[in-house]
Structures are given as C-alpha cells and as structure tokens.
Amino acid sequence: MRSRGRRRPTWRPPFTPTRCGRSPPYAHRVGRSALPHSCGGIRQDGSVSTSDDRYGQDVLARDPHAPQRRQLAEVPGEHGLVVECADSGWCGAVIGWEKTIEGWAVVLEDRDGRERAFPANRGAFLLDGERVTVVRPTKTLTPMAARTASGSRAVEGARARVARGSRIWVEGKHDAELVEKVWGDDLRVEGVVVEPLHGVDDLVRVLADFDPAPGRRLGVLVDHLTAGTKEARIATDAMAAHPGVVLVVGHPFVDVWQAVTPACAGIEAWPVVPRGEDWKAGICARLAWGDDTGLAWKRLLGRVTKWTDLDPRLLGPVEQLIDFATQDGG
C-alpha cells in the first residue's frame, strides 16, 4: 500500500500587487506587455515602447524614386552682378532692390540702360547658365526710384514727348488697350503711338500706304504667330518688302486675353475652345462670365496692374517693338 505523501506544490509566478491591490496580468509577470502592440508597452529588456504602429514604419510612406527637390545655389544680389531672368530672358546687372507687395524685387539694368524690377523668387534667375536664387545682400543697397507698370524706372515730372514718325500696330482694340495699360507711361515718354490693326490679311497693302522709311519705322504685333501659318507667311512678305524699317513679331496666343496670367485673371487655367467656335464667346461661356464679351474684357483688363500679370511670351515681343520704334531717331 502506497503511502500518501505530501503533494509537491505547483509553481506559480510570484505575486506582485498592483497599486489597486490586484495581481497584474500574467503577461506583465513574465516581462511582456499586456497592451496591444498598437498601444506600446514594456519590452522584455525593461524599456518602454511608445510606438503606435504595430507593423513598424510604413515602407510606402516615402517614395525613394520620387523626384527630389533640386538644391539651388543662393547668390547675393550685389551691385553689378549680371544675371538673366529665367522666364523672360531679360539680362542685366543688379543695381538695387525694391520692396513690393509680393516681397523683395531685384532691379536689373540691361546694356541699353533700361531698368526693370524682377521678383526675387526661388530659382528665378540664371547665372552662367545655371538656375540660382538671388538673395538680398547683407548690406542694403540704395533704395530705388518708383517704377512704371512695365517695370521701368518712372521719370518724375516727365512730359509726354511729341509723337515720333514711327508707329506700333497691334492686332485689335483689346491688344492696344492692354499695351497702353502696361506700357503707356513708357510709350508717352518715348513718343511712340500704338494703333489698332484690324487683321493682318491686308498688311502688305496698308504698309504701302504708311510708306515706312528710316525715321518712320513700323513695328507690328500679330496674334497667334506660329511657324507655318498664314500669319507667318504674311509677316515674312511684309518685312521682305520693307527691309530694316518694318518688324513683325507675335505671340502664340489665340487672343491677347490669354496673355493675362490665370493667377491675375482669377482662374486655374484658360479653357480650351474648339477650332471654329468663337474664342471669346467660348471663354465667357466656359468661365460663366456672361454673354457680353466687351464687359468681360473690361473686368479682365481691370485686374491687370503691372507687367508681372502678363505672360513672358507677350512681354518680350512688345519690348522688342518699342526698342525697334525708338531706334534711328524713330
């Protein structure tokens, strides 16, 4: 007969009372966290985990193949530094800085002595062919004079000059009004008159009536002037018939309305109007601007206050025409 000895006690983890007097969960007594992985807990080495991600770092949170933002050099805009505006191609030397509503602008002077202020945005300039950010030098330069809407220095107290013999023709009333709005002060000082040209189909004939000559030059701004078009052929014939005294340039826009930047117009982008549909009417319909295209244009023109409200592809041709009309005693 077997003796009934004492039973060996079953081993249990040591009791560690909690603050409220109850035994903690078993996981705590063996060194693991009793909390879900997503809430963190106590690691086996005694350290505290604060991670809120049970699977670790999200491997898709960062795309290693995504384009990285290019690091651009910052160049102090010291007096005499020669840079080029990356958008318009204007090249000149730094002669000062101006405070504007949008921030600081650097003032450049080209080789002909013309001046223009450009917003000092990131990567807005080219130096030796590389994009750079021109920043204000630590030593402040002399404050600059007031500017016209075109960015030129305003000539204080200047009176309008007697009109030159040279002229600038633009294709339509709206083109003429936009040029006047931005370049009007410059044109009055230079004595250059801008006149509307109602279509370019008869350009060669009306040029013969104007009779261009040295001191009586003619610059023409044409809408939608692109290679291979009817307008391009007319421009070539006109300049060939009057070499050296007629210059025809253009912009790529269907209408000069498009030369106003979408930001200035208060829209995301200019809508696309199918070929064959009246462009202005189509724009007004798609932007809910009403049926009166004349009123729509007045509102759009009223939003334009300076040259930065216009696309660089219009700025360059207009400046080129003003230079042409004022050369040779125009």
Question: How are the SSEs placed, and which strands pair?
Answer:
Elements: H1 26-29, E1 41-42, E2 48-49, E3 73-76, E4 82-85, E5 91-100, E6 103-109, E7 115-119, E8 125-127, E9 130-135, E10 167-170, H2 173-190, E11 193-196, H3 203-210, E12 218-222, H4 230-241, E13 246-250, H5 262-265, H6 279-286, H7 293-303, H8 312-326
Task: Give an account of the 3D structure.
The chain is α/β, with parallel strands linked by helices and 330 residues long. It contains 8 helices and 13 strands. The strands form 3 sheets. A 7-stranded mixed β-sheet has the order 3-9-8-4-5-6-7, with no helix packed on it. Strands 11-10-12-13 form a 4-stranded parallel β-sheet, with helices on both faces. Strand 4 (82-85) and strand 5 form a beta hairpin. The relative contact order is 0.09. Residues 18-24 and 26-39 have low confidence and may be disordered.
Quickly list its features.
SH3 type barrels; 18% strand; single chain; seven-stranded mixed sheet; alpha/beta; four-stranded parallel sheet; 330 residues; globular
Task: Write a brief structural summary.
This protein is of the alpha/beta class and 330 residues long.
Structural class: alpha/beta
Helical proportion?
10-25%
- Average pLDDT, rounded to a whole number, is 80
Rg from Cα: 35 Å
How does the overall form come out from the CA principal axes? globular
- Characterize the biggest β-sheet: 7 strands, mixed
- Distance, first to last CA: 137 Å
